[in-house]
Amino acid sequence: MSAPDGPVSRLLRYRRLIAVLAGISTSFAFAPYGWHWLAWLAPAVLFLLWEYESPREAAGTGFWFGAALFGAGTWWIYTAIHDFGQAPAWLAIFLVAALLAIKGSYYALLGFIVVRIAPDPSPGRSLLLIPAGWTLMEWLRGWLFTGFPWLQLGYAQSDAPLAALATLGGIHLVNFAVAATAGAIVVLFFQAGGARLAAIAVAAALWFGGWLADGREWTRPAGGPVSVALLQGAIPQDQKWLAENRAATLETYRALNREALGARIIVWPESAVPVLAHDATVFLEAIRRESAAAGSDVMLGLLDFDLQTGEIKNGLFSMSSAGDGWYYKRRLVPFGEFFPVPEAVRKWMRLQSLPYYDMTPGEESQPPLQAGGERLAATICYEDAYGAEQLAVLPGSTLLVNVTNNAWFGDSSAPHQQLQMARFRALEAGRFLFRATSNGITAVIGPDGAIVDRIPQFVPGILKSSVVPRTGLTPYARTGNWPILSFAFLVLVAFAIARLRARHNS
Questions:
Q1: Per the residue annotation, which of 270, 337, 374, 428 is the catalytic one?
Q2: CATH of range 221-328+367-473; options 3.60.110.10, 1.10.10.410, 3.90.1150.10, 3.30.413.10
Q3: Residue 185 and residue 130: Cα distance in Å, rounded?
Q4: 71, 131 in Cβ contact below 8 A?
Q5: Active site residue: 138, 313, 329, 383, which one?
Q6: Separation of alpha carbons 431 and 414, rounded Å
Q7: Active site residue 381
Q8: Which of 116, 216, 288, 306 is in Cβ range 3.0-4.6 Å of 311 for a Cys bridge?
Q9: Each residue of 406-452: pLDDT tens digit?
Q10: Number of CB atoms found within 10 A of residue 413's CB
């Protein structure tokens, strides 16, 4: 559509600035701000810009929207790379800029495709094509090039009715619903007649569906309450691995563990033990004896080193009366746990005394861990941002556990955003999830995604609570992402075919 005369035409002269402001505004929809309505209002501004743009122009505004969203929402990456990763400022800035460019490119691709397929604005484009494309784009950027599924629109709805749709179709169904709501806003205010009725019908159906699904229990209790104690040592990241602080760190966690004795399951954070597993055998055995005498099983994060292969794995070690077990992290953090760079760059990093050593990911298929008489589906760190990662292990699990070291991010929005994503993992699985973090946010999450209990950040402490093991599967746990992704793909195909036929007949 060509640009109209009047105020809209004048505004379109500043389309890139408007796209940047819309992207920044969207970041405030997520925790800790929680203005969830911005997740559908701000993208509606982007969709409106696309109403008057060519495919190339739509790609440009999409890029600036995406880059601004991640610039405002994930600025803490600089803190992790520079302040705690000890990388030079210029390198940290370069890596952050590269991330923003990559993420912006996904939104650019989406804008180009939807305007190319459907160049003329219509209710179908706003209510179906753009939401379908948005859903596929969010899915794609969640796994391509290791993936970074942060700031998906659906996560902002953790305290809104649309969140309940996650039990039916996971986070991507919620993403579709939010994008469709944004599309409905565009149709409602900028089109007329039957188009408005269609917009109201689509938005009402999605929100009413969320309201109906809210509170529906798809899983059932599988036993009585189990007491848990989650330890938070609050050891600063820049102090944790110093040799002179090692004894004090171990004593901090040992003291917390003693205070937690009696809880059926005690959980320490990711890499809470600042030594390799084979160097901590004496310490671990002492913890095992004290805990077993009090009837407690302990799960603790530490690094496991294979003396034969030289491989290092980030693990969660369970010392249980039912037998010891390991879970190894599968989703490693780029430039934190592995470095996807050429050997020449790796040599330069070694000369600059920068981290350069790659960890080894765990096997894709790992059984639940045993602790407290229960079977726990485990994740480490930002693995709880990947909804489909836990699907295979859910049928044999009664609880979810996550251990995280987010001391890397300081006092930023990152821990709040990660907790928000973890809430969806509990909701999708219909199970309690408890997460022990190095300096917060340590919390227990109910099967409805609500936060049952939490403790303050940045102070040593113990979160004592109880959880109820559950069995059974939600609809999402049975089907995974394929229903909503298949629907979204078919929508794109249908619009593409219609476009080809229109061009052939013209």
A1: 270
A2: 3.60.110.10
A3: 13
A4: no
A5: 329
A6: 24
A7: yes
A8: 306
A9: 888 888 999 999 999 999 999 999 999 999 999 989 999 999 999 99
A10: 20
